[in-house]
């Protein structure tokens, strides 16, 4: 289906703030968390059904919505002025008002066709830029928005925001600011707070080539992306199964993360090493989970503090036995819980981290990346972010989707529209994915790429 659908660019414009950024704000300093963020774009898609007036021509209504979005984005950039600038060097955004990119595109199908069986490759075409191209992300606009117009009158808004400026919380704040601007609701406008660099001093990374993030292993084999959906009832059953004295009330994310981790361990072990008796050898592995620091520091950071204010909890697993059937889900949940508590304790020690500690963590990560004897997984959760509340003037989105970067060993978790189920976008190399997606324990809880219902 994807090969038959065309996404044709109708118009491409540069959107700038209505007035110049004041001279004293021209150089926006990046924190060392921003510096160490991968040079990619954070991608998000919001899908809206046909919202045209029954008595109005669809094309006219669509054009009005696009114009409304572009004008309100101009005003929003007044508050998020660094997004109209460009990255300069390793530690500064030059707020030169060069602008964000606003793209309007036509899609030769109805929205329902996309939602029938969402395809990762197709979804990437709804973005204005390849979010994995680090070369472009270093010189291109920090924000690109693509408005995708379907034949049925539906719309998909594609966001690409530089990871050097934003984490998921910052993206959520930006969308909140934009929607409030659309409704002229100044009382609901949560303006951004800058200045993370004063808490997390920049490092001199000019002579350091950061490792790939995450490591691009097995480049000879194609990376596959699959979408798995876990309904609320299945997640509740899984939570009950994995509860233990160590973690008596596992969260949705902990339970689902542990299940996916276990199935990835099994797939990796079966595909990469077998002994003479034909049983699989379990490879050691780690799963790293980016976590919002704002609520975990002492004192807590403001919810509207922008930047990459995340830390990583890293859970380790190794097993001396020879059978993958011996992997205990309760044990994996406990390890994930322990890693999270360690991360929280680290964040609570002090808000202002010195550069020595930052370098130490950087070196630990580099050493981990270089260790080929350990499987490395990243599982990031966007659950509980209010993306389904994003109303630009024609209702809330019918579906919100992450857009997977085709890089090995990444999993992204997102809420279903009901706020209780979870959608998991999983990346693995082709051979491992064939084993992973046929795992009976996984399929007892998750459905492989079902139709989006709303």
TrEMBL record:
MF (Gene Ontology): acyltransferase activity
Gene3D superfamilies membership: Chloramphenicol acetyltransferase-like domain
Domain of life of the native organism: Eukaryota
Pfam families reported for this sequence: Transferase
Transmembrane portions of the chain: none
Keywords: Acyltransferase, Transferase
Membership in a protein family: Belongs to the plant acyltransferase family.
The protein's name: Vinorine synthase-like
């Amino acid at each position: 289906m994807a090969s038959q659908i065309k996404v044709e660019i109708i118009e491409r414009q540069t959107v700038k703030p209505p007035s110049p950024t004041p001279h004293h704000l021209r150089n926006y300093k990046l924190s060392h968390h921003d510096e160490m963020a991968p040079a990619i774009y954070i991608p998000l898609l919001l899908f809206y059904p046909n919202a045209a007036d029954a008595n109005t021509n669809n094309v006219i209504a669509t054009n009005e919505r696009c114009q409304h979005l572009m004008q309100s984005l101009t005003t929003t950039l007044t508050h998020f002025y660094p997004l109209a600038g460009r990255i300069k060097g390793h530690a500064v955004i030059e707020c030169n008002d060069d602008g964000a990119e606003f793209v309007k595109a036509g899609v030769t199908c109805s929205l329902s066709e996309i939602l029938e069986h969402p395809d990762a490759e197709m979804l990437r075409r709804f973005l204005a830029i390849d979010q994995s191209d680090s070369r472009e992300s270093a010189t291109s606009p920090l924000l690109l928005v693509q408005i995708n117009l379907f034949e049925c009158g539906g719309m998909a808004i594609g966001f690409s925001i530089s990871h050097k400026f934003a984490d998921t919380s910052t993206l959520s704040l930006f969308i909140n600011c934009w929607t409030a601007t659309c409704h002229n609701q100044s009382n609901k406008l949560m303006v951004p707070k800058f200045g993370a660099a004063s808490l997390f001093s920049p490092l001199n990374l000019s002579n350091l080539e950061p490792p790939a993030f995450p490591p691009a292993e097995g480049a000879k084999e194609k990376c596959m992306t699959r979408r798995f959906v876990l309904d609320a009832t299945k997640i509740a059953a899984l939570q009950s199964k994995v509860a233990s004295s160590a973690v008596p009330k596992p969260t949705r994310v902990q339970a689902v993360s542990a299940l996916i981790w276990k199935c990835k361990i099994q797939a990796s072990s079966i595909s990469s090493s077998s002994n003479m008796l034909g049983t699989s050898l379990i490879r050691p592995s780690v799963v790293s989970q980016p976590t919002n620091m704002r609520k975990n520091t002492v004192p807590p950071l403001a919810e509207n503090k922008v930047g990459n204010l995340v830390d990583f909890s890293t859970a380790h697993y190794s097993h001396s036995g020879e059978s993958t059937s011996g992997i205990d889900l309760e044990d994996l949940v406990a390890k994930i819980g322990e890693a999270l508590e360690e991360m929280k304790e680290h964040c609570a020690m002090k808000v202002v981290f010195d550069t020595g500690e930052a370098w130490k963590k950087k070196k630990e990560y580099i050493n981990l990346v270089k260790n080929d004897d350990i499987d490395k997984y990243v599982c990031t959760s966007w659950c509980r972010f209010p993306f389904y509340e994003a109303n630009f003037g024609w209702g809330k989105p019918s579906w919100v989707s992450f857009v997977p970067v085709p890089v090995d060993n990444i999993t992204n978790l997102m809420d279903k529209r009901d706020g209780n189920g979870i959608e998991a976008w999983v990346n693995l190399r082709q051979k491992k994915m064939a084993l992973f997606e046929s795992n009976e324990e996984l399929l007892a809880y998750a459905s492989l790429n079902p139709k989006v219902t709303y």
